[in-house]
Amino acid sequence: MDRFKKILEERKAKLENELASFAKKDEKVKGDYDTQFPDFGTAQSSDEEAFEVAAYDSALPVEYALELRLADINKALEKIKNGTYGQCENCAGEMDPRRLEAMPEARLCLKCRKGK
Fold this sequence. Notes:
Blueprint (H helix, E strand, L loop, with lengths): L1 H19 L2 E3 L7 E3 L10 H37 L14 H6 L7 H4 L3
Antiparallel strand pairs: 1-2
């Protein structure tokens, strides 16, 4: 457990740093970040303004994906704390340790993940 906890905490820190590079943590909504509109200086032309809008638009799906991964990691850390880590959320069976090695934040065993 200690090894998985360390890996998850390292991944959490990395994701939070990555999010902080272009988004601000929303103090009102737990686990939510707000992508900051880029300001590359004083936009002197409509092309520069369009570039800022495109950069913002590109960052939104990245923010969402990172938030989802961060939520899974936080959930896995909570499971470690309450003693349910490694248990499939669907069938309640024990997950294969190899699955947790590959993806420590996994919530479902491979059988349930594949829908069998």
